[in-house]
Design goal:
Residues 141-570 form the PPM-type phosphatase domain. It holds the Pfam family PP2C. Belongs to the PP2C family. Residues 79-90, 269-288 have a biased composition (Low complexity). There is one protein chain. The protein is of the alpha+beta class. It has a domain at 132-235 and 278-359 and 372-447 and 483-598: Phosphatase 2c, domain 1 (4-Layer Sandwich), CATH 3.60.40. Helices cover 28% and strands 16% of the residues. It contains 14 helices and 15 strands. The strands form 4 sheets. Strands 4, 5, 6, 7, 12 and 13 form a 6-stranded antiparallel beta sheet that branches. Strands 3-15-14-8-9 form a 5-stranded antiparallel beta sheet. Helix 3 crosses helix 8 (333-353), helix 6 packs parallel to helix 8 (333-353) and helix 12 (529-537) crosses helix 13. The longest helix is centred in the N-terminal third of the chain and has 26 residues, at 2-27.
Length: 605
């Protein structure tokens, strides 16, 4: 009986304790740790600022669930005739079994039907089949290779594939027509020819930033093209078919096609109507939407980072043109790339600022919520979290190349016209090889604080110029960094280490250039531009060329930095060794450097 009574008392006391705890929790609800919350889907900014800088009201509706986003297209789509996939089992020859002397030519009689037209070589009589070809397996069109050198691990990253955005190539002349025998590539989901995406990222201080750019930067470019309302350069504008009203009608049609997936009970839309595109674009013109996006991003840089960005006006933004008194130009690929680069950099830096600094000596004395920021963090296009559990202080460079064609003929065809857009931050490098002369044509410049362009940019903010100093090797650095433009580097943002890209646009004529090379500073810091081009000329495929460049750079390098290289075939690939001296211009120097590197008495620096 005593044991039963004690058990009853214990249960009663436990019940009263639970009730007391419940009452206490009702009076003082537990604090929600922002670092462990699931990041909601991305929202568009408002004219007064972004919603992630404002504390949400208690009566606000819960954030909508994350929508699955398609994976990055690491392949390209093309058309192949069905005969190439399933060839006929019959032997080639005449269709009849008569001997040659018994066959008589057909003479059409009056009243007979018309003769069957002969099919053109590029128009097979069988149906075309759409196939996906992985880009990294197409070794005759693309090659990529990476090596960690003498470092403990590889901080470089690269990406290649196709992205969904309107074409930005120049419209082909009227005289250009598809010739018989030319291959044709399939169109993208938007109806334009596919846009190819190639990128190289060189991380420093770790691989978190370079891997983030590898996985997310293409999504930022696609989202920026959608938010800007970028129009295709290949379609003629028709009255009533452009502008925000046409975009809203297309979105409503897409919602109707999706069916009841986005409609909740009672016929109510489950999406957040306050942030829907229709509510913000129906009353605004495209130029107003563009100005609002750019002004909101610049204002967020000023309030979040400050310092250099208080007088920050990106070159390709309409806000910079309005400050100088110029007229607002139509939205182009330059503004889209600038916005996507700056948006990705701000998201990465803000995400790191929300995390705990592992090197803080006074971390135990600071409050638990010291690193918390009110509101909802801005999510990347994929909706995934950014970085690890602790603050990442490193960064990364980026070199992105986009190729757009005006017709369905792929850019590697000898008779194809194409447009190349390069966005670059840091000291990675992009080169073209001219077919006629065999010379290297650089499309990027190293963003070092000692160059005239970067020095004049940093002088706009006085403390940034005073932070530039030389190291023991005579190289100028800004706050210890060799690059004055980079993603990440949270400690150096206020003094001018920006991610504003240097954008170059080039028109590629038929077979005008042989190939395109993208590389990290582990290659460009060791080899000259002409050496890199000549090494690729001696290779049979772009894949072999990328591997030879990295192996040669690693062999003759003094510091053994990470080396990454991409080689993209262009229209003049078959004639890459005809122009100039071919690959013999630097062969003697390359042989001498190899012999010096293999010398056992060589002294390392």
């Amino acid at each position: 009986m005593a044991s039963i009574r004690s058990r009853a008392l214990c249960s009663a006391s436990r019940g009263s304790l639970d009730a007391a705890c419940a009452c206490a929790c009702a009076r003082n609800p537990p604090r929600r740790d922002l670092h462990h919350l699931r990041v909601p889907a991305r929202r568009s900014p408002t004219p007064a600022g972004r919603h992630d800088l404002v504390s949400p009201s208690p009566s606000s509706s819960p954030p909508p669930p994350l929508t699955p986003r398609r994976e990055f297209h690491t392949y390209f789509v093309t058309h192949l005739p069905s005969s190439s996939l399933h060839p006929d089992s019959s032997q080639p020859g005449t269709g009849h079994k008569l001997p040659r002397d018994a066959s008589v030519p057909h003479t059409p009689s009056p009243g007979s039907g018309p003769a069957v037209a002969v099919a053109l070589p590029n128009m097979p009589n069988r149906d075309l089949t759409v196939v996906r070809i992985p880009l990294r397996r197409a070794k005759h069109h693309f090659g990529a290779f990476s090596n960690r050198g003498r470092r403990a691990y590889n901080e470089d990253a690269d990406q290649a594939g196709t992205i969904d955005m309107p074409a930005f190539a120049k419209r082909a002349p009227v005289s250009v027509r598809q010739k018989p025998g030319e291959p044709t590539a399939a169109d993208s989901a938007l109806g334009d020819p596919q846009i190819f995406y190639f990128a190289v990222f060189d991380g420093h201080g770790g691989a978190q930033c370079s891997h983030f750019l590898r996985d997310e930067l293409h999504g930022y470019i696609e989202e920026a093209a959608t938010e800007y309302g970028l129009q295709s350069s290949l379609r003629k504008k028709k009255p009533g078919r452009d502008g925000p009203f046409h975009n809203v009608m297309k979105q409503q049609q897409q919602q109707q096609q999706q069916g009841p997936d986005l409609v909740g009970k009672g016929g109510q839309d489950t999406t957040d109507s306050s942030h829907s595109p229709s509510s913000s674009t129906t009353a605004e013109s495209p130029s107003a939407v563009t100005f609002r996006l750019e002004q909101g991003l610049v204002q967020e840089y000023r309030t979040t980072i400050g310092g250099y960005f208080r007088r920050f006006h990106p070159e390709h933004f309409g806000t910079a043109r309005s400050q100088s008194g110029g007229e607002a130009a139509p939205v182009g690929i330059e503004a889209v790339l600038t916005y996507s680069f700056l948006r990705a950099d701000l998201d990465f830096v803000t995400a790191q600022a929300r995390k705990v600094d592992p090197d803080d000596k006074w971390l135990s004395d600071s409050p638990l919520n010291n690193d918390e920021i009110l509101g909802v963090p801005h999510a990347p296009p994929s909706g995934h979290s950014i970085g690890g559990a602790t603050r990442f202080k490193g960064g990364s460079t980026a070199s992105v190349a986009l190729i757009s064609t005006p017709t369905a003929v792929p850019f590697w065809h000898p008779g194809a016209h194409s447009t190349l857009a390069v966005a670059h931050v840091g000291d990675s490098r992009v080169l073209l090889c001219q077919t006629a002369t065999g010379l290297a044509v650089p499309l990027t410049s190293a963003h070092h604080p000692g160059t005239p362009q970067e020095s004049s940019r940093l002088r706009k903010y006085a403390p940034a110029g005073s932070m530039v100093s030389g190291d023991s090797f005579g190289e100028e650095r800004i706050a210890g960094l060799a690059n004055s433009r980079a993603f990440g580097d949270i400690k150096s943002k206020r003094i001018g280490v920006s991610a504003e890209p240097e954008i170059t646009r080039a028109e590629l004529g038929p077979a005008q250039f042989s190939f395109l090379v993208l590389m990290s500073d582990g290659v460009s810091g060791t080899l000259s531009d002409q050496e890199i081009v000549d090494v690729v000329k001696e290779a049979k495929t772009p894949e072999e060329g990328a591997r030879r460049v990295v192996e040669y750079a690693t062999e003759v390098s003094d510091d053994g930095d990470n080396a990454t290289c991409q080689v993209v075939r262009l229209g003049g690939w078959e004639r890459r060794s005809e122009g100039g001296l071919g690959s013999l211009g630097t062969k003697e120097m390359r042989d001498m450097r190899r012999a010096e590197a293999q010398d056992p008495r060589r002294t390392h620096r």
